Amino acid sequence: MADSHASPRQLYLAWIEEQIEEYKARLPRDELLQLADEAVRALFTSEDEQYPLTEILLRDAVDALIVRRLGLPSYRAWLRRRRRGSPGDPPVSS
What we know:
single chain, mainly alpha, 4 helices
């Protein structure tokens, strides 16, 4: 259940995290490892030429790839949809 005192941004971030985790849970292990490899390649082609590869950075990179694959909306687009009452997302309190 959503916290009635959570801000719309907190609700959005919780929804995004839920979508990502559900997607990861559906992926076979091999596909998840391929996704991690893709994230590592993207990190190593970074224009700043720094390679701070940590578990947290890798997790965030994989999550960003999943967000793109799922076509999840930006916070502003999500908020507009929620305020129009689209089903399937947590409600937004104004």
